[in-house]
Design goal:
This protein is α+β, with helices and mostly antiparallel strands. It contains 3 helices and 6 strands. Strands 1, 2, 3, 4, 5 and 6 form a 6-stranded antiparallel sheet that branches.
Length: about 130
């Protein structure tokens, strides 16, 4: 996890598992999104405040590579790097590892943009200072 600029530890809750006893594949997107929101708050960007101001941060593509399943009670860490994807897009490069052995669980690249009040894509000025 040392190659990520932001990390957050969590634990699997029983209700997140499917009948096979593993975390349902869709739940991983919730983990990733939660950490994206925490990261944005940590750099002074409030997702809800942006929405109230007419700026909508949206995901336009999600690439997830599942490597190993988590089960109920597993502790895990989600890492994140925030990078420029293109002139109008940014990406959250994210990974999940099981703790304490750091077994790779998932690799993800979540590509997003901001939409202004007219629905036009752009990268907010506040993002420019932190994008790699």
């Amino acid at each position: 996890m040392e190659h990520y600029s932001f990390t957050h530890e969590m634990a699997v809750r029983d209700y997140e598992c499917d009948i096979q006893g593993i975390v349902n594949n869709g739940v991983y997107q919730n983990y990733l999104e939660h950490v994206r929101h925490l990261y944005l708050k940590s750099i002074g960007i409030d997702f809800a405040e942006y929405t109230r101001a007419g700026i909508n941060l949206v995901v336009v593509r999600a690439e997830l590579d599942y490597r190993f399943p988590l089960t109920s009670g597993d502790r895990f860490c989600v890492g994140l790097n925030f990078v420029r994807e293109s002139r109008l897009r940014f990406a959250f490069v994210q990974g999940i590892v099981r703790l304490p052995d750091e077994k790779p669980v998932l690799d993800a690249r979540i590509i997003g943009t901001a939409l202004n009040a007219r629905g036009r894509p752009y990268v907010p000025a506040e993002f420019e200072a932190v994008l790699v």
